[in-house]
Every structure is written in structure tokens, then in C-alpha cells.
Fold these 4 entries.
Entry 1:
Amino acid sequence: MNPLERKIILASTSPRRSQLLKEAGFQFEVKTQDVEETYPPEMPVEEVAGFLARKKARAAHDFIQEDEIILAADSVVIINNVIYGKPLDYDDACQMIRTLSGQMHRVITGVCLLSKDKERVFSAISDVLFEPLSDAEIDYYVQRYKPYDKAGSYAIQEWIGLCKISRIEGTFTNIMGLPVDMVYRELMTF
Ligand SMILES: Cc1cn([C@H]2C[C@H](O)[C@@H](COP(=O)(O)OP(=O)(O)OP(=O)(O)O)O2)c(=O)[nH]c1=O
């Protein structure tokens, strides 16, 4: 079946995920349920995004009809085997960006598709290289863009991503919060 004709329930409050699905031409409605974004501490960092995406999808399971598919996702930034989620405050945000400055990091978005009788989880990986950033640039970015709702304290679609990222291995949409190419491909066989 054509993925663009499936009835999708997007279980996400992220405006970026809605924007990407909409621009790619999918049909969807947003329905969300609060989920505690916790995971077992011993879990390998590469598995966390998929685990959290599944948790978010399962929390929305009761909402759906027979012909509907829940889509949930979670994005994490990983550097030196440590997960960077959303920053707590200004200092935390600056500290995260300072760690990313001049370095390569990994962004993983886990996605879960869930219907009444099926479930599928998959993840997309992108490796991202930041140019070195000065303290003044970091302060400008955090003050002006307030990246408190962004994993890793930055958004690829804003000034910092557009002007300070020099290399990406993987897709832009994955870094922005939803690997739409992969979603399309997986929906063809779901
Ligand atoms: C790395 C990066 C993340 N982000 C955003 C995407 C996600 O909204 C957010 C990661 O947080 P998530 O916990 O993945 O998602 P969320 O809490 O925003 O939404 P929900 O749980 O309801 O689905 O960071 C960008 O917009 N640009 C980027 O470059």
C-alpha cells in the first residue's frame, strides 16, 4: 500500500516531526500521551532511542482503530558514549554545545510503528561534524534560540546547524527528529 495513503497517528508533540511528515505528504493526526523518558542505565546507548520510541508508541496504543498506525520517535545525541538529551538550563545548554564544538557526534532517531496487531522499531544514524564554536557564539545561540526542547541543545535547522556544521554522514531529517525516507520505506512493508 502507498505509504502516503496510510492513516497515521503521530504520537509526538514535536513540531519538527509534524512539519517533516506534512512536507513529505503523509496523512496524519497528532495524538499524544505523556511518557516518562527513562531507560535502564545499563542499556547500550545506541539502543536508547528505539527503546524510548517504542515506549511512546505503546502509551498511545489505546487511541487507534484497526486501520490506523501509530508513529512515535525519539532523538538522542551521543558523544563519547554519553547520551545528551534536552538541556536543563542555560549553563547545561552551553556546556553541551561546548562539548560538541569542533567534534564529531552521532544523532540517532528511533522510530516505532505500531498497529493493533503489529509493531516495528528501527533507528537511523547520522554522524555530524561541528566547526569549532567560540564562547561568544555559543552564548549568542543559546540566548537567541533557547534550544531547551532540543536533544543535544541544538537544532540543525537553525543558525548553528546551517552555519556551523561542516559535514553530515546520514540524513538531515534524521537529525531534525524524523528520518522520513526510512519511515516511507518501512511503511511500504508494514
Ligand atoms: C538534534 C536535534 C533535535 N531536534 C529536536 C527534535 C525533537 O523534537 C527533540 C528531541 O526530543 P525527543 O525527546 O526526541 O522528542 P520531543 O520530546 O520533542 O517530542 P515527543 O517525545 O513528544 O515525540 O529535539 C531538532 O529539532 N533539531 C536537531 O538538530
Entry 2:
Amino acid sequence: MSSAVATEPRRQTGVAVEQVVRRFGDRVVLDHLDLTIADEELVILLGPSGCGKSTLLRLLAGLDRPDGGRVEVPARRAIVFQSDRLLPWQRVLRNVTLGLHGPDADQRARDVLAEVGLSGRAKAWPKELSGGEAQRVSLARALVSEPELVLLDEPFAALDAITRLRMHDLVRALRTRHHAAMLLVTHDVDEAIALADRIVVMSNGRIGTSHDVHLPAADREVSVAREELRARLLEDLGLASQH
Ligand SMILES: Nc1ncnc2c1ncn2[C@@H]1O[C@H](COP(=O)(O)OP(=O)(O)OP(=O)(O)O)[C@@H](O)[C@H]1O
């Protein structure tokens, strides 16, 4: 019955944070926080410095435990940090296969490296990569295990504006292909608008507000071409071109 397909409810990734509390000493960083993430949803987490964004991501990654409440996450999840955290003594391919098992591990790593545009760099050492390339390896490493949830903690904050825009295109493409839900922390409101299905803003240890974003792609982002022209003009003028 074809209508059964059309009316099938959206599968949930099983990301549910309920009344979560996390304290450090006297300080209550997460104060009865609630958050759910739908299957394949890309949620952007915004909030002032020190409000507890990384703390929440660490709980979802299983790197930390709450003092109260409930955290439900899918079994397969991956985290990408602001710095690439690649092992300097392993080549790119080995950094991606790390933790993978099975005879097809190398092939899977090569496939995902191709997806992030780095097929030619499998044998490179991390120190030979640009910042953008290193973060693409980090994305490849996160995606190679086909996670249901990808947690990204300010993954593009250290990159220049043009590289960051290219990374946005890449995230959009990877999402379509990998069907993972994503929770991405950023301080960059433009980045939030560019990528999000939903933007949640933290305040006082909770999710304060939540905005569904229904903008078409063309209305979301400053273009690469515009940023390149801007960078060239700033260079011509002898001014810094980072922002
Ligand atoms: N392991 C810890 N021990 C003690 N305090 C901690 C620990 N981890 C985090 N905190 C404190 O919890 C608060 C929230 O930190 P967190 O890193 O989650 O904030 P954030 O919103 O990610 O900040 P930023 O945007 O600056 O990265 C801070 O005051 C921090 O000092």
C-alpha cells in the first residue's frame, strides 16, 4: 500500500536528553536540560562561552556522565573536535581506520576519504595537511563507522572564511549520503543559519529557545565567490583577510 510509505512516522535516532543535571563543584552547568534530536536532523547548538555546550556534547559522546537525569543515545556515534586530534605518527589512512575492524576497513576508509576530497592524501602524514584537510580527515574518521549520531564541537572555528564555507558544502553533501543526525556547536551565527534544520540556544544550563530553519539554500549563506573576491580585495589593500 503506497500510502503506508508516505505516512510512515519519522524514525527517531534515539537521542533524548531528559532533565539532565551536571555539576562541577558548586557550579550547576546543566540544569534539568531537555533536548531531543530527530533522525537525520542537523541541530546547531549556540550559546555564550562557558554555558555548557561542550559539557553536553561530552555527555552525549559518553565521555562524561550526568549527575542526574537521563541521556539516551544511539550505539554508533562519533565526535569531531575543533582541533583535528589526528595521531601524528600514523598516516592519514591509518588515522581513518583507527578502531575499525574487518577485512574491508582499508577500502571503507579510502571510500570516505574520496568523499571528503582527499583520495590522493591517504599516505600523507598529518603534519603535511592544511587545517582544512586535517578537519576533512577528522570528518572521514567520524563517518567511516557509519554513525547514527555525529557530534561536532566547533569543528570549523580555526579555519579561514573560505575554507569554512567549503566545509559547509561538504557537511551538506555528507549528510545526504550518510543519513546521520548531527549536533554541531558553533559561536558563528552565520554558520548556524547556513547549516541548521534547527538552531537551539542554551542559557542558564538549559535549552532556552529553539528555531526551525526553513530557508532555501540560496538565502542561507555568503558565497565562496563573494568571499574569495573579498579576500583578494583585502589582500590588495594589505589588510588581514581572515574575517
Ligand atoms: N571537568 C571539569 N571540571 C570543572 N569544571 C568544568 C569541567 N568541564 C567544564 N567545566 C566548567 O563548566 C562550564 C561549562 O564549560 P563548557 O566547556 O561546557 O562550556 P562551553 O559552552 O562549551 O564553552 P566555550 O564556548 O567557551 O567552549 C565552564 O565554567 C567550565 O569551566
Entry 3:
Amino acid sequence: MTIHASFDRFSKKRGTSFAVEDLTFEVPAGRIVGLIGPNGAGKSTALAGLTGLLEATSGRATVFGMDYRTLQKPVTKVGVNLDGMDIEPGLTGRRHLQICQLAAGTSPESVDRVLELVDLTAHGKRKVRDYSLGMRQRLGIASAIIGSPKLLVLDEPANGLDPDGIQWLRSFLRDFASSGGSVLVSSHQLTELEQIADEVVILKRRMLFRGSLENAMAVGGGSLEAAYFKILEGAR
Ligand SMILES: Nc1ncnc2c1ncn2[C@@H]1O[C@H](COP(=O)(O)OP(=O)(O)OP(=O)(O)O)[C@@H](O)[C@H]1O
């Protein structure tokens, strides 16, 4: 089994206490792994550690067996869309993607390709400030995939999406994984995650659960949400 991302006893201190402690799991090719946990559980810290934005206090987080910061042309391997990666509101969606395309060193045609993929072709000439939250989410995903990466790391991608957008995201991620890609996605939307994840990691500073969606749902009598509360309760 090819492993695209791996946390190996990853720990990160923020201030005087650990935001994440001793986190170990893998994201294999072809799989969608959902990272869930309450506010402040350390999900963003883990994703930032994986994508080179934070350095581990101990342990490691690697992509394709390497530290993200040592990857050559990282955008062609890992697509990242994290909370707080704001897009300049005065740019048009197309211009934003052209900048990403230049930075990624991919062909100019990739801009049209990703606009089409995220269903924003008709809105490419509009300024980002006039985009809805859902359109901004799609544009963030478009920027993440401009280098045709194999691994996607997404923080709360369903935020702000309407039911159509959620359906679109679901089939987009499914297609991405079935063509050999992998996805690590953090989400608070458990019923949504139940529809898309193959594997689930529950984090509350420490990892409380790691396993297949099926096993997670079995803990909750067929519901991921019930399993989540049961596992959190058990850890108190
Ligand atoms: N820049 C920072 N400096 C110091 N502590 C931080 C910083 N960012 C986050 N923390 C702390 O690290 C812990 C984990 O936060 P993190 O944002 O990773 O959690 P999260 O699971 O992503 O939360 P949420 O679901 O609310 O987005 C929290 O206790 C938070 O207060």
C-alpha cells in the first residue's frame, strides 16, 4: 500500500502546553481520511505540521516520505487549502489562479482546467470580494489542485457550501481518490464526513480513535456522530 502522508508520534507544543501529542496515523493512496475533534483539539495544528507551516516539537509528519519543506515543486505533489489562507479580494478568481499557476510552474491551460473542475468557469472574471463563501471554498480547492497533486489536505472544505456544493464536493473528492489520489480532510460536519470518508481519526490533543469508517460507525451503533460522542465521553 502506498502511503501519501504519515504522522509518526507527531507532537507540537504551542505556548507551554501540547496542542497535539503523540499523533500516529497514515493516509494511504486512494483513501479519504477524515480528521475530527472538538474546537481546539489540534486538527489545524496537525495539518499545519504536515504541510510545513509548523515544525514538530517531537516526532514527524511527512508527505511522500519527506518533510514537506524539502519537497521539490510541492504544489505538484500536495494540494493544500487550510483555514486562514485568504485570497486577495481585489483579484478576479481567474487572476488568483493565474498567480497560483505561475508559482506552480504549470501550463497556462491549467487555469481553465481547474476553473472547470470546480464549476467556476462562468465566474472567473468576477472579483473574489463578490464571491459567496461557497464560491471561495471552490476557488481554494481550485488553487490546491492547480499543480495536479496526488494528496489533498483540506481544512473544513464543506464550510459555506450549499446542498448542491456539498454534493459536488462529495463527488469531486470521491473521483480524486478513485483515480489514486488521497485526501486528508478535517471537518466538524460529521454527517457529511460519514458520506465521504473511508477512514476516521478522532483527535483531542491525543488521538482517541483511528480506524475505518465502518469500525467507527459500529462504535456508535451505525452513526459516526454517536460514535464521536461516545469516544469523547470515554476519554473524559
Ligand atoms: N498561534 C497559536 N499560538 C498558541 N496557541 C495556539 C495557536 N494556534 C492554536 N493554538 C492552540 O493550540 C490548540 C489547538 O488548536 P487548533 O487550532 O490546532 O485546534 P483545531 O482542532 O483546529 O480547532 P478548531 O476546530 O476550533 O479549528 C488550542 O489550544 C489553541 O488554543
Entry 4:
Amino acid sequence: MNSAAWPAPAKINRFLHVVGRRDDGYHLLQTLFQFLDMSDWLYFTRTTDGRVCRVGDVPGVSEAADLSVRAARLLQEATDCACGAVIRLDKRLPTGGGLGGGSSDAATTLVALNEIWDTGLDEDALAGLGLRLGADVPVFVRGRAAWGEGIGERLIPVSLDEPWFLVVDPGVAVATARVFQAPELTRNSPRITISSFYTGGVRNDCEPIVRRLYPEIGRALDWLEQFGVARLTGTGACIFAPFAQEHLARGALECLPRRWRGWVVRGCNRSPLLRRRRLSRSGSASRVR
Ligand SMILES: C[C@@](CO)(OP(=O)(O)O)[C@H](O)COP(=O)(O)OP(=O)(O)OC[C@H]1O[C@@H](n2ccc(N)nc2=O)[C@H](O)[C@@H]1O
Ligand SMILES: Nc1ncnc2c1ncn2[C@@H]1O[C@H](COP(=O)(O)OP(=O)(O)O)[C@@H](O)[C@H]1O
């Protein structure tokens, strides 16, 4: 039995610029990923029958589509592993919220089952497998706050300030593909260097599109802006604003209109998963099929 709890933390995009587009339609980004001390929780039981299944309901996510189940099957195939797993997902992060919950569930599954099944892949191999499941999965596998380029898979670890954040969920599910398909999306933001982040010349290029497609998110941004710089994470729906001290963020949370949900959480440069995992140093990417 391996039923210990594994965290699948949230991420935010401290900023997000769209700097181009690949031939396959995917957008080239510049972004800063940071983790939040706020997680889904996953429980794994190793079995010997080779089956991967999920127990329990996850609202809006069928077992077959669940990225944790798909990640387990991918790891199994890639390593010819004969083991199976029963997966239980305690879903805490809003789905389609721009907090990367599904991608994080996939990354935690890859990292946890690599350990539980003893499949011996190293971090690069796991990140490569993760990329097949989604653009955001590699940063969760690596677990370090990062400057991201490409579609988010070219990652340079960074050490950012770790403020408290008030994160607000306006209760709308955003379809990432719909935002990226919008004709008026800015796709040619000039490339910047990391120092621009600290001098304040950054934004989230998806925000004007999201405000138009999902007016409730615009209303939430306007509300949060009274406390400081409010920004969308990823393609939304969640938004965040930093606070220098926890009590200031909690004071703002107390004023939150009742129709929205909010959390006061700490930004972290090392993800809760990184603290939990024990990656094999001798693992070999050559074991990936
Ligand atoms: C935009 C970001 C920023 O962190 O965040 P979210 O708001 O989704 O969390 C991510 O890059 C999202 O990553 P992820 O959620 O894994 O996206 P994927 O499943 O790979 O892609 C969903 C769809 O969005 C579009 N897409 C996604 C990423 C990207 N760089 N360019 C795109 O054009 C594609 O149409 C793709 O089919
Ligand atoms: N375990 C999962 N948790 C959440 N969403 C999942 C999961 N597996 C698949 N999905 C799908 O992934 C999509 C993106 O979900 P999520 O990662 O929560 O949001 P975002 O990409 O906006 O940060 C959802 O529309 C959902 O259908």
C-alpha cells in the first residue's frame, strides 16, 4: 500500500506575454511561473494487475479524460511497467481556473508513480513525458519557480519575491483554446528580459480577450485593483494581487463580494511537490519508449 498524500500545487503566471506563434498553432510565450501553497491532493495504491483506475468523482472531469489517469498510463507505456495503480484525487483547485490544477495533477502522478513503481526516470525524462500531456506540465514536474519560454517548456529557475496573494475565483470556467483562438489576441509582444519584470513593464496579454469573453472576470479584476496590481493567471479565470503582509491580504478577503471565492496563500519558489519527492539520480531517459 502506498496511500500517502501527494500535493499537486497551483501555479500563477506573474505575467504572461504572447511573443509569437508556432506552425502548429501553439503560441510562444514569455512568462514567470510561481507556485502557491494551495494544492489538490492525490493518493496512489500500487496494484499488480496492470490496471490504472480512478476512484471517486471529480466534478466535470471523467475518469478517461483525467490528466492524472492519462499520466499514469503514459508512464506505464513509456517504461513497460507491469504495475497498476488506483488513484484518488481530492480536488481542491478550481477546474479551468488558470491555476494549472489538471497539469499539476498530471505532474504529481508522474513523479509519485515513478517512485512508487520504481520506474527510475530522471527529471528530464518525466518533464518530457509531461509535455506530451500539456504545455504546463513540465514546470510542475520540476517544481521550481521559473522563467518560461517556448510554449512554457523552456524553463530557467528563478528566485522571486514570495509575497502573500489574494487569489479570487470569479466562478467562470475559461477554455484556454478559446482565448488563444481570438483573432484580436496580441501575438507580437516584444521579447523582454527578466529585469523588466521588476521594473513593472509587464502584463498578461490574454486579459483584454478574457475581459471581453467573460465579463464577470473583468468585474473581479476591477474590484481587486483597489488593493494593488491585479492580474489574470494564465488564461484565467482566477486572478491575483500581491500583498506584503498576510493580514493585509486577509483584510481584503473579508471585503470580497460573496458571489466570488477567495484564498489567501503564499507564493513559493519551491513547490510543495519538490519537498515531497525523491527523484532517482541514476534514472535514465533511455528507458522511455
Ligand atoms: C496559458 C497557460 C499559461 O501557463 O495557462 P492556463 O491558463 O491554461 O493555466 C498554459 O500555457 C496553458 O497550458 P495547458 O493548460 O497545459 O495548455 P494545453 O492543454 O497544452 O493547450 C490547450 C490549448 O490552448 C492553446 N494553447 C495552449 C498553450 C499555448 N502556449 N498556446 C496555445 O495556443 C492550444 O489551442 C491548445 O490546444
Ligand atoms: N485532474 C484534472 N483536474 C482538472 N482539470 C482536468 C483534470 N484532468 C483533465 N482536466 C481538464 O483540463 C482542463 C484544464 O483544467 P485546469 O488545469 O484546472 O485549468 P487551467 O489549464 O485553466 O489552469 C479542464 O477543462 C479539464 O476538463
